[in-house]
Design a protein that fits this description.
Oligomer: single chain
CATH class: Alpha Beta
Bound molecules: zinc ion
CATH architecture: 2-Layer Sandwich
Distance between the termini: 43 Å
Length: 236
Amino acid sequence: MMRTLVVFLFFLICSEFYSQTTVDLDILIGKSQNNLVGDSIKLETSTHKAYKKMEAAAKRDGVFLKIVSAHRDYERQKLIWNKKYEKFTNEFSLEPKKAISEIIRFSTIPGTSRHHWGTDIDIIDANFPNEENVLVSEKFEKNGLFFKVKSWLDKNSEYFGFYLAYTNDKKRKGFEFEPWHYSYKPVSAKYYRALIKTDLKKIIKSLNINGSEYFDQSFIEAYIVENIMDINPDLK
Ligand SMILES: [Zn+2]
């Protein structure tokens, strides 16, 4: 009896540990996510709860947050990537490798976007619904349209679990400063740790997207270290 109980408890602890440290590969690379809330803006369940709390707190301070982008699946990211590649190589006549390095200033290779997880959001000020090209750094700086939102988030977002992913740290490589992109750490840190444990080189190498034939070994290695791993250290 005692032995059965010990064995049972052992398995219980192991399965609990397993569920906390592993995340389904398809969720990590945007090919599935069954834990989403929302219609056009979709968020992972706990992220959604925390965001609603933060949104309400901001509102009480007279600040109106608006999410312009949340969960994006693999296919959506592939569409963004392919369109940009076409534009940069055809319209702007860039060499393929140059086009790729332009795309990865702000956009991820499909399968490697933090937006796949439903934990990451791009936030602007809801007071300017007709504003175009909203994700521009200057708009979040002093005298910019979204400065009020940005100052509020600087002071309060971490209390609600939301951290900037791509900070203004000059030593940081990879994606440029994105003052709008916040990540819900309690869930995304777990996903991040799971993602970097996967065979990312193999995943990126096997992609079939525009320009992927130009992804050589050194490009892929640099992309993993700089674009995927060189994020706000507080999010790891
Ligand atoms: Zn973003």
